[in-house]
Batch of 4 targets.
Target 1
Amino acid sequence: MKNPRKKAAQQELPEQDAMGSEDDFAPGGNAQSTQADGVPPSEESDSGDTGSEQAVAGDANSTSDLASEREKYLRLAAEYDNYRKRSVRERSEVGARAQADLIRQMVEALDDLARFAHVDPSTTDAETIVQGVDMVEKKIMKAFTSAGLRVVNPVGETFDPALHEAVATEPTSAQEDDHVVARVYQPGYVFNAQLIRPARVVVKQWNG
């Protein structure tokens, strides 16, 4: 008579095909089933190497671009510094030449002034001294005028606060003379459109 327990145990064991093959339970498992997204191991390794090479190439290009930009900056800074120094030197040279030209024009006037400053008063009359000083003044003013100086002597002109400084006023009976310069205490000077000193004047004032 057969053992009923042994027969029940045989019926409970699953079939070999239903549980899978022995390779599925091996430590390595199925080689193809363990790859992500179906990519073979060799292709995944090649992709990683290519990415690393691209990253290294990108870093090298960035370093080269940075070095190139730095070189351009240094070259531009050097050129600007040279331009600044050259401009300062040229302005200094132009100013020195202008001053030399002015002194050159005044040399003769200084010679005349020295001659009249050392005359013997016992043998030279006053008229000669006055004529000599007048000649020196004209030469000096000629040199200053050629350099760009203009004298502001506004007698009879309308008062201009941009060029004149009123130090006093005096009454006038004529309305048309209101704010007209009556006298000049001290002439003014304008050099190349720049006011050096305003003319100090007395201005007429009509009170009605």
Target 2
Amino acid sequence: MNQVQDHETTDYIALRRLQNRYADIVTRRAWPELAEIFHPDCTLNLELGDRSAEFAGPEAVGKFIGDSVARFSFFQFVVLNTVLEIRSSRNKAVARMYIHELRVESATGKRTDAYGVYHDRFIRDETAGWRFQKRYYGSFSRTAPDDAAEDQVVFPLPERNLSTWIDES
């Protein structure tokens, strides 16, 4: 392996650890820890199929997620798959991360599921290492309301070309 491949492999492992840490923080509902993995100027843009929203900074993101999962007695955030594009020499990376949320509603005890994809932009600095810089989340399926004809509501799969996106900024 050459030096470029060594750096990319090391960065790949660090970025996967970062994604796994995010899943752990969300599952444990440890919102203050988001400040350790998000750049202070990090933004989160949401497309939930039936509504959209934007949040800036780790505290605002944590409050939104915390408020959203408060109604669940059980909540687990699972990373299903991830694809990364890394530019080690430029301290930049982007990723597409597919997720599954397993949930139990406190009020009813009903199991619900949500599936989505994050398109993430990462930045690395010498002090903090890799951190989330921009996040775009899109839902593509979730448990349908009780009165719906089908079990799952399905939305178009959000897509972004990682190879061109990494070079855009």
Target 3
Amino acid sequence: MKKIIVKEIYPVYQMEIKKTDFTKSIWDIVDHFLQKVEEDPIAELIWIFEHYTHTKKLNWPMVEGVVDAKMIVFCFGSKIASIPSLALKPRSFSIIETEDKFIIEFMEAPSDEAVKKMTNWTKELLK
């Protein structure tokens, strides 16, 4: 797993899994994250967004080689610490399938505990 900066300001964690080293499907990955959100005492599932399907339907451009893309949108909604803190929620995992790999990404959360959970949940895919 690595941390990258997108558009010069957005810290994003990214993990790539080669299909040759992995026997699961994109839906298996989605199910993994859904289970983690469900098991967490404060996380709440908001939606599964089928980004690839949506983009295809609109006939908008897509990165070459992408064969599917889904997002799991959820919130670690334990408190409202301040009004601006709501602008930093919710969280999401993006799962991109290309011809030869899966790419799992999430943007860094303001909470170190949330980042740790999301990092652990992502790394557990390799077990």
Target 4
Amino acid sequence: MLALKDLTLFLQCPKCGHANLSLSGSSLKCTHCGSVYRIVQGIPDLRVGFYGCRPTLWKLFYDAYGRFYDILEDAFASKVGFSEKLLRLEIVKAMELEGNNVVLEICTGTCRNLAYFSKLVDGTYIGLDASPGMLRQCFKNLEENARVGLVLGFAENLPFKDEIFDRVLIGGCLGHIALKKRALEEACRVLKPGKTLIVYDQTTYLDRISGKVYKTLENRPSELVLKSFRYLFRRHIYTAKFTKVIS
């Protein structure tokens, strides 16, 4: 795991927005507003606010689902005609990772993407998720990877500094986020100008004929320019690639 002192270089207080978080025993403290955030098993809990429909029920679902996530997701992928490994290959090609990139995955789940990316290309990788149950499974997949850090937080209120990441990935979750516009705004905020945001998600026949996917992606900040959009695996998955304009 990435050392906490190194992880704090990327963090800001999700309450006041100041980058004044310091380590204090088993917690992080904001020296600007005084807020204190727990650190559990090396993972800072920076979840501030409640987002989406019935957040408590979603939290309970994903905390319980975490133990079975990898097995069930692999089974679903196989049933509809692709594999998680093939999807990961498509994503990493789109991301065009380079050495020493600083990469954020929003809704990292059990960290299989980050485990794969970090073995391919040197860099710093940070995974954010709202579910402690999901992140607990990351320890199994990361195998003590020293270049990956984990943070508990919300996509709609990212606890990271402005323009700090070279790549941002929103993987398989945008369709489940109630405040999609806010999540895209936050992803844009933490992305460096000229760098890449990748969004991928599952899609259904009804999503496609209703134009739901396009409506979601069109509701993004003007700084994010769409570079490519593709359906994959018999149109069960879409990927969209954006670049943040240099002002």
